[in-house]
Amino acid sequence: MLNGLLIASNSIISLCYFIIAFLILRPFLRGEQKTSLVLATILVFFSCALGHGGHVLMMALSNTAHSALLLKLQIVVDSMTACIAITYIALRRYFSFLVDGPLLLNKTQEKLKLANTELHNLNTKLESLVLQRTLELSRANEELEAKASERKDMIAQLNRSNAFLKAQQEAGRDGIIVVDENMQILFYNQNFYQIWNLPEEVAREGDHQKMLTLAIAQMVDEQEFIDKVNYLYQNPEVTTHDELLMKDGRIIDRYTAPIYTQDIYYGRIFFFRDITKRKTMEEELRHAKDFLKLIINVMPQYICWKDCNSVYLGCNDKFALMAGVKQPQEIIGKTDYDMMWKKEEADFFRTCDKEVMETNQAQLHIIEPVYQASGKQTWAETSKIPLHDLEGKVTGVLVVFDDITARKKASDALIASESLLKQKTVELEATLSELKQAQSQLIQSEKMSALGQLVAGIAHEINNPVNFIYGNIPHIKEYVEDLISLLQTYKEECSQPSEKLLSQLEEMDCDYLLEDLPKLLSSMRIGAERIREIVLSLRSFSRLDEAAMKAVDIHEGIDSTILIIQNRLKNQLGTKIQVIKSYSNLPHVECYAGQLNQVFMNVLCNGIDALESEIDNTSPTIEIRTFLKEDTQPEEKRVVITITDNGSGIPEFVQANIFNPFFTTKVVGKGTGLGLSISYQIVVEKHKGVFTFSSVPGRTEFWIEIPLVQEQSK
C-alpha cells in the first residue's frame, strides 16, 4: 500500500514538476531570452532529478529496517513539494515579476540601448543633413549677395557710363542728334541747334519736320539735301560721311550711322561739325606746300629728306631725276638700298645719317661719290642737317648737296700737277713756289666762294619765310586781341559759369595766359626782326652780287663779319671776349667787298685764337678802330682799319714769317697758314694798300690801309 501511495505521490509530483517546468519555460519557448532558457532548463532538470533521485533512493531503502520511516519521510517531502508546486501555480501571476522582471529589464535595457543607438544615428544623420542644408543655404545667400552686389555695381557703372556719355555728348565739338526708327527725335545736344542756328524753343519742342525745314533753308543746294535725307529714310542700314555747303559760307561735316543691336534697327545717329576754319587752314597749307615745293624745285641743289630710319619722305625734281624716279612722290618709302647706289655708298649714306641724328649735330661739306641713274659717277659736296619736331626731338635728316664733279676733276688735276711739279729740278723751284701760292689762293677762293654761296643761299632761304612770319605777326596780334576781347566780353556776359568751366579756367590760368600772350607776340616780333637783321648781315658778308669793285660801307662789312663769328667770342673758361668798336664817319670805299670781308675774318679769327689760348686773361678784348687818313693829297686819301687784341703778343721768331704762305704755329689740322698770306695779297696787291702789324706782350695791332678810290677808276 505504501508503494502504491509512493507511486501516486511521485506521479503527482512529476505532474507538478512538469507543470512548473512548462510555466517556467513558456516565456522562453517564445524565444525571448536564450540565456535564461538554458538556466531554467538546467534548474527544472535538476529539480526533477532531485525528486526522482530521492524517490529511487527511497525505493532502494524500502527493504531496510528503517524503510517505513523513510517512506513516511518521502511522502512528507513529496507532499511539501506538491504544496509548494500548487502554491506556485496559484500565486505565479503575483510573483512572476520576481522571475520575469530581470528578464524583462534586460530586454527593455537592450531595446533602450538599440533605440538610443538608432536615435544617435538619426541625430547624426539629422545634424549632417542640417549642416548640409545650412551650407547650401549659406552658398545660396552668398550667391544672392554676389548677384545683388554685381547688379548694384552694374547699375553704378551704367549710371557712370551714362554720365560720361552725356558729358561727352555735351562737351564735344560735334552737334549730335539721335532719331528712332520712325525718324522721331530721341536726343540732341546744345551744339546741334547752335551749329544749325535753330531757335532754342524749336529745339526744345523736338519737332523733326520743323527742324528739317529750317535746316533745308540754310543749304546752298536744298534739293540735294532733301534727296540725301529721303535716301537715308529709305536705306536705314547706310553709313554716310559728307560735307554740307551753307548759304552763310560755312562748311558742315556730316556723319551718320545706323544704330543696331543684334540685327535690330533702333534708329540713326547724326554728327555735325563746323569745319570751315579747318578747310581754310587746309587750303592755306596746300598753297604753302605748293609754294615750298616750287622753291625747292627752283633751287640748284639736290635736296631730299628722310625719317629716323633713313627712309625717304620726299625730294625735289633734281634729286628725283638723279635717283632715277619719274616723280618725287615715287621716292617716298624707299631707302638708299632701293636706289641705284652701290651697297658701300648706301652704307656710308646711312652711317652719316645715323651719326647726324644721334649727335643732333649737322655735318657740312661732306665730299662723297654719287652714282646717278644714268650710270655716270659724280662727286657731291653734301650737307646733312637734323630735323626736329615741335618739342625739339630729332625726327629725321635733311640732305642738301651740290654736284662738284668739275671742281673735283680740277682739284684732282691740280693735285696731279702738284705731284708732277714736285719731281722737277731745282731750276723750277721758283715756278713751283708760284704754283703753290696760286694753288693756295685757289683753294681759299673756292672755300670763300662756297662759303659765300652757302651764306647767300641760307640768307635767301631764310628771308622769305622770315618775311612771311614777320608780315603775319601784326595780323596774329590783331586776331589775338579780338579773341581776348571776345573772351572778356564772354566773361562779362556769362556771370555764372559752370564748375567745370571754372575748374578749366583755373587749371589753364586764363588771366596769366591773357596777360602773357601779347608779351609772347611782342617777343616773336622782336625775334623776327633779329632774324631779318641776321639775314641782312649774311647777305652783306657774302657780297655775291658785288664781285666787281664797288663803293661800299666798310663798317657794314666789319659788322657782318663779327656777327658770323659771334659764337667764337668766348675763351676756354667761358669768359666772353669783348669787342669794342670805334668807328669814324667814313665815306664809301671803293674795293672788292667780299675779299675785304675775308681779310677782316682772318685777322679777327687770329685775334680770337690768341685770346682763347690765354687762361689768365680775365678781360679779353678786341678793339676795332676806323678813321680817315687825311694828311695826304685829296686824291690819295686812305681809310685806316686797326684791329687790336690784348693777348700775349706774337713771338719775334714768328713775326718774320707771319705773311709767308703755309706758315703756321697751330697744331696739325687746326690751321693752314694761308689766312694772313692771302689777306696780305688782297690788301697790298689787289687794293694797293698797306697791311702791317706791331706786337708787344699784352697788345697786338694789325694795321690795314685802303685807298678811298682805286687807281683804275681815277
Structural notes for this entry:
There is one protein chain. This protein has four domains: 2-165, no CATH class; 172-274, Beta-Lactamase (2-Layer Sandwich); 404-542; 546-713, 2-Layer Sandwich (Heat Shock Protein 90). The strands form four sheets. Strands 2-1-5-4-3 form a five-stranded antiparallel sheet. The chain has a five-stranded antiparallel sheet with strand order 7-6-10-9-8, sandwiched between helices. The protein has a five-stranded mixed sheet with strand order 12-14-15-17-16. It is α+β, with helices and mostly antiparallel strands and 714 residues long. It contains 18 helices and 17 strands. Residues 31-37 have low confidence and may be disordered.
**Could you say which structural class the secondary elements and strand pairing correspond to?**
alpha+beta
Number of domains: 4
The side-by-side strand order for the widest beta sheet comes to 2-1-5-4-3
Number of helices: 18
Backbone CA Rg: 63 Å
CATH architecture designation of the largest domain: 2-Layer Sandwich
Classified in CATH, the superfamily of the largest domain is Histidine kinase-like ATPase, C-terminal domain
Cα shape = elongated
CATH fold-level name of the largest domain: Heat Shock Protein 90
Query: What can be said about the biggest beta sheet?
Result: 5 strands, antiparallel
Q: Just give the CATH class of the largest domain.
A: Alpha Beta
End-to-end span in angstroms? 213 Å
Q: How many individual β-strands?
A: 17
Low-confidence stretches: 31-37
Give the overall pLDDT as a whole number: 76
